Amino acid sequence: MRILIIDDDAELCALLREFLLRENFEVETAHDGTSGLKRATAEPFDLVVLDLMLPEIDGFAVLRQLRQSSRVPVIMLTARGDDEDRIVGLELGADDYLAKPFNPRELVARIRAILRRAAAPRGRIEVNGVLLDPGTREVTCDRRPVVLTTLEFDILELLMRSAGRVVSRDTLMGSMYNRRATPFDRSIDMHVSHLRRKLETTRPLIKTIRGVGYQFCASSEEAAESAAT
Asked: What average pLDDT does the structure give for the chain?
């Protein structure tokens, strides 16, 4: 698997590159936003590790432009405590985030979790007008193409395969991020909000079960009941 690290800290890049090479990843690095974006869009990578504080153009601009043409998974690197940066990054289409300083083993665990979900062979599924194809990573809603990020796709697939049943936030966090949900981590909620907006149907498809998690409506009748309540 080919990883691109975009970070202006050359020492950190070298450390991560050495660590990831030992974990059998192929690693390339870029030290500014311009060259990082150019490589990310011109070369095939399985995942991008993107720092937000970059020279020339910052990580937000890189992510925004990258998402115009690519759904490659992106893990953001943020300064500890910068909750607003994390929220903006998720809004722009990042799949996960990691606060500096961090343990390289945690980064590897998150990389493997994202890549494992993307590689697992699964059959197509159609529920309540939404068709999801894991083979092509394509989604249509009422025959209209819907463009999703890697994590949005994976969350939607998990909800659809559990259609009619409630999926807890802990289950979603464990499956997507390999960690438990915390009261202050709103990343799953942000991704579900994006899913709702992108599906844009006249009927609600994803119900919030307050204090528990989410449920994908298995039928138009369930959706109508959800709208009524």
From this structure: 87
Q: What is the pLDDT of residues 174-222, one digit of tens each?
A: 887 777 766 667 788 888 998 999 997 778 899 999 889 999 998 766 5
**Contact (CB, 8 A) for 53 and 82:** no
Which of 9-13, 16-20, 96-100 has the lowest average pLDDT?
Answer: 96-100
Residue 30 sits in a domain whose CATH number is: 3.40.50.2300
Residues 6+ apart with CB under 8 A from 106: 98
Domain count, the chain: 2
Dig out the tokens for 183 from the structure.
């009261």
Query: What is the extent of the structural domain holding 181?
Result: 121-228
Backbone angles phi, psi at 181, to 5 degrees: -75, 145
Secondary structure class of 161 (helix, strand, coil): helix
Q: Which residues of 88-105 are buried (b: 16+ CB within 10 A; e: fewer)?
A: bbbebbbbbbbeeeeeee
C-alpha torsion sign, points 171, 176, 179, 181: negative
Task: Classify 141 in phi/psi space as left (phi over 0), alpha (psi -120 to 50) or beta.
Answer: beta
